[in-house]
Amino acid sequence: MIRLAGVQDLRSVASLYHRVWHETHGSHMPHAEREARDEDFFLGRIAGLMPNVIVGEDEGTIVGFVAWTGPLLGQFFLDADARGSGFAQRLMEAAELTLRDQDIWEAELHCLVGNARARRFYERVGWRVHRIIAEPVKGDADGEERDFWVMRKRLA
Ligand SMILES: CC(C)(COP(=O)(O)OP(=O)(O)OC[C@H]1O[C@@H](n2cnc3c(N)ncnc32)[C@H](O)[C@@H]1OP(=O)(O)O)[C@@H](O)C(=O)NCCC(=O)NCCS
User: Fold this and answer.
1) Can you give the pTM of this predicted structure?
2) Ligand 1 binding pocket includes 76 (Cβ within 6 Å)
3) What is the per-residue pLDDT across 80-96, written as a single tens digit (0 to 9) for each?
């Protein structure tokens, strides 16, 4: 089942976000950034994204979510067991329909350079790499950055 998140879902989504971010992104980030990102960090972040959060459930358990701010699709995370199942595509379709309902006709996302599986998925569902940008991360030294693919899709 795919539906908008409610306040009752915040803890489950934050827990998933925390678990999957550390699994798939943590090793590419500086130690200081990993240390800063405990479960409360993700709870604060996801609460700040409401009401633009859609969750996917399997037998009552949240196994994935997508979230956005304006036209920027900032979060797309699935638990390992839900990957490769077609679930991501259904979650993306729900997000794109909701964005269109919000009168957003072109959306953008930033995907960590090197995350080949995510890029492949996004391209398969119609997103295209537009350019690469460096974004600041909480580094072990001042001024640390990581490169991200800026991907866009027209939703019309
Ligand atoms: C990114 C994500 C949402 C995609 O969902 P998914 O269910 O894994 O996507 P799919 O299996 O439908 O598609 C992934 C594609 O990458 C391919 N793929 C799988 N592993 C790969 C790898 N290591 N390198 C490159 N491509 C890979 C798959 O074959 C598939 O391509 P295909 O459709 O041509 O066969 C999911 O993997 C995820 O949540 N990952 C962890 C969090 C994350 O990285 N989020 C993105 C943040 S920008």
Assistant:
1) 0.96
2) yes
3) 999 999 999 999 999 99
Please identify which residue in the block is written with the tokens 């866009």.
152
Domains and CATH numbers, the chain: 2-154 (3.40.630.30)
Residue 88 Cβ < 6 Å to ligand 1: yes
Cα 129–134–137 angle (5° rounding)?
125
Q: What is the 25 CA–ligand 1 centroid distance (Å)?
A: 14
Is the bond preceding 51 in cis, omega lying within 30 degrees of 0?
yes
Q: What's the token pair of residue 50?
A: 């409401």
Q: Out of 120, 135, 151, give the residue to mutate to test ligand 1, the one with the largest number of ligand atoms within 8 Å of its CB.
A: 120
Residue 153, Cβ neighbours under 10 Å: how many?
Answer: 21
Q: What is the helix (H) or strand (E) element at residue 11, kind and residue range?
A: helix 10-24
Nearest CA owner, ligand 1 atom 42:
77
